Amino acid sequence: MSQDESSHSLALFGITGALGREIQASLEVEHDGIAQLLPVAGPASAGQVVRWRGASLSLTGPAALDPSAVDFAIFATPAEVVSRTAPRLLDAGARVIDASGVLAAPPLPRALTAPAPTVWPRLSTFAAVDFEDATALVLPSAAASTLAPLLDALTHPATGLPRLEAAAVTVLLPASHAGQRGIDALSRQTVGLLNYQPAVDPRPFPAALAFNAIAPPLEDTVLFESRTQTELGALLPTLAAASLELTPIWIAAFSGLVATVHLRFADDVDPASLTRALSAHPDLSLGPAADDDASASAPGDDDAADPSAVEAEPEAAGSEADASPGDDPTALSLRAVLDSERVHLSTPLVSGRSVRLVAMADPIHRTAQAATTLLARWFAALA
């Protein structure tokens, strides 16, 4: 560790990717405990520089990084990078945050005597995380981090809701679920199809994603369901008695995640109790996300009280054909929830024991914020 325990060196792996850039932006604003940032990226980013608090930093390749120079490391990379590089850092005494899930299951690096715990801030189990003794922490996948707060709110004993028996979830995955290459591929495919190209390269997807929805191959679906169920089980011990079915579908969106959720409880659900449980959870927002543009364009109380303002509106707007309709501020839309730190839920539809709702979130932004929170807690625990 650094001589000065209040300032540390941090290696950020995958800093040029979508998640890495978001983590960097979050750390730059919120962390004074980072004395040195070590930006790490793969060969495709060789020769690039990144800006960090007014300075230009040259990128380092994973193999060229000196493990002894690292106090903390955040991996915003594919699993194979973590498997190849994290053991060297752990052996050298660095502490690691892994967003790929590799360190949560065997085979483990020799420096880990047990799988690293999967953690997420704002869950009821987060207070039990031992930051002082931990050497590695794992952040869950996009699907698990989106569903965990909802299931936490529904299964916590204090809510008084009936026992949750089953949940069937369809998860709509954006291009960013495949990382930066997925975002680049969707952009390239969209431009190609708009320019009437007869064929576009589908990779890394099984078919072209632009203007499309794709059901992943069966093997990928099974792996997705298995990983998400494992992560949710680690995050939420209260979920053990519930059956969970997950179906992933790729959609032509660049970012964000949408999940349609059908829940079955052991007894009839009181809508008021359900609303209270969801509204009280610190990682959930019940109803549409705040839309600054929509709020700015909507008439306020002062406008309604001024007849001249109301009468002038049709003339200023012109004919109906010329008017430009804005987004409905009462609608829950994926674009509106981007850059939000919470999961946004539609109004639940309750019918006896059954509840249906839609959850939307920005996993990239939320994961970056979670990594920042974990690092701050770790710094504090070791101070």
What's the quick description here?
The protein is of the alpha/beta class. It is 34% helix and 21% strand. The chain has two domains: 8-116, Rossmann fold, CATH 3.40.50; 144-291 and 329-362, 2-Layer Sandwich (Dihydrodipicolinate Reductase, domain 2).
Describe what you observe in this structure:
It is a single chain. By secondary structure, this protein is of the alpha/beta class. The chain has two domains: 8-116, NAD(P)-binding Rossmann-like Domain (Rossmann fold, 3-Layer(aba) Sandwich), CATH 3.40.50.720; 144-291 and 329-362, 2-Layer Sandwich (Dihydrodipicolinate Reductase, domain 2), CATH 3.30.360.10. The protein has eleven helices and 15 strands. The chain has helices spanning 18-30, 79-91, 142-155, 180-194, 218-235, 271-280, 292-297, 301-305, 307-317, 334-337, 363-382; strands at residues 8-13, 34-40, 49-52, 55-58, 72-75, 95-98, 136-138, 164-173, 213-214, 243-251, 257-265, 284-286, 343-345, 349-351, 354-361. The strands form three sheets. Strands 8, 9, 10, 11, 12, 13, 14 and 15 form an eight-stranded mixed β-sheet that branches. Strands 2-1-5-6-7 form a five-stranded parallel β-sheet, with helices on both faces. β1, α1 and β2 form a beta-alpha-beta unit. α3 (142-155) packs across α5 (218-235). Mean pLDDT is 87; it is low at 1-5 and 291-321.
Distance between the termini: 11 Å
* CATH class identity of the largest domain: Alpha Beta
Q: What's the CATH architecture of the largest domain?
A: 2-Layer Sandwich
SSE order in H/E notation? EHEEEEHEEHEHEHEEHEHHHHEEEH
Counted beta strands: 15
Gyration radius (Cα, Å) is 23 Å
Q: Main sheet, how many strands, which sense, barrel?
A: 8 strands, mixed
